[in-house]
Amino acid sequence: MMTDTHHTHIWSGLYPETSWKIVMQSTILGLLILFTSCACLAGNDVWETLFSEKLKEANAGNSNAQYDVGAMYQNGRGVAASRDKAVEWYKKAAAQNNQKAVSRLNLIQSNEERFNKTLARAAKGEVESQYDLGNMYSEGIGVDADITKATAWYDKAASQEFEKAQYKLGLIYYEGSSANKDRSLAFQQFRKAAEKGYPPAQFYLGKMYASGQGVKRDYETALEWFSKAADGGFNEARREMIDVAELLEDSSAEKNTELVKTVTPEAKPVAATRQIPAANPTVAAQQEKSPEYTYEDLMLASWNRDNEPVAYLPSAINNCKVENDKVVCFSDDQSRNTVTGTIKYKTKAIVSNLAQDGSFEVVYRNLVIDADQNSARKKGSSEELIGSTTKGSVGTNYEVKTGWGKEHSLQCTFKDASTLSCLKNKTHAFLLESPQALAAGK
Fold it and tell me: Is the full-model pTM beyond 0.70?
């Protein structure tokens, strides 16, 4: 990826207010066709579609579109990354007095100067500069992105026992392409940094023990490393601790069950003598009257959480339709303010497995289309704590990048005609309400 800012700017200020709805109607129509064509929430074609639309507008002279085409070239979104092309489009937009493009060109020049100074210090063996240079090559700050050169500079810093570089090397081996992915090497680098007390490395070491990737699965050891990461302020580890604790409990229960089967003699069958009571006619009548919910009932509602519309079920901010025994929803633009800036995103959700008792499942992901956070990277800033991991609920410890976030799951059940009880990711329970009465509940 190529970025001269801390994050990318794809959709900020694309259109004046008067034309935004018109453009979005045609854009969302195309995106819906792409998204709903498969149950998986893939999104490579999204960027290609967006780039094609922006390029047409840019060629027509729209300075905001010219800026966005430059950003997409700069970050390799929907088109092969090209620094020269990015600068070319930024200059076209700047020539029309587009202040975002002017600022971006100034930032590019500033980052190039910073890169040259960092390179000079790194060549002399300064460990922090070697690490910083690895970051700049990794993310295309002041130079074309080059993961091979980034790895080489991280390796130089890691050989001097710099834990942040060891962690970044671990990330490359853990999350990299087939050419450089090596879970065994990732484990080694994460362990070195984790033993020095670096919380992000402790978190990933816990993940590797929990999943059995690169090392033999060990839930107890995973829990220990997640605990250390959480104590160090890495909040994502707290959720993993809950999941691993449940897995550890289930694993122990299975072992105990096997032990009981081994040591307990087989019981002889005993004839049943207790009479089965007759069915209670009152209970039977109540069961017959219990409502049977359908997807149409979900579609008639407008679901809120704490009086705010949700993006993963039919609501005031969602476009939903029934497809092949599923409800597919694609939200309007959403934004979230963080301590570092504003994040713009959309949500794709699929509702399935609706049972007659009113229980169903939801799977959703957020597509971050603009992460307008601090442009200038600060040494020691919290972005270093997460690597390339994206978190749906953004906190101060996470770097947020454009693209698809992690998948979330909900298990929901109708409590009554206008209330849902939901469990998110098997850990967090909450209620959703609809001010509209459902047909099944009338």
Answer: no
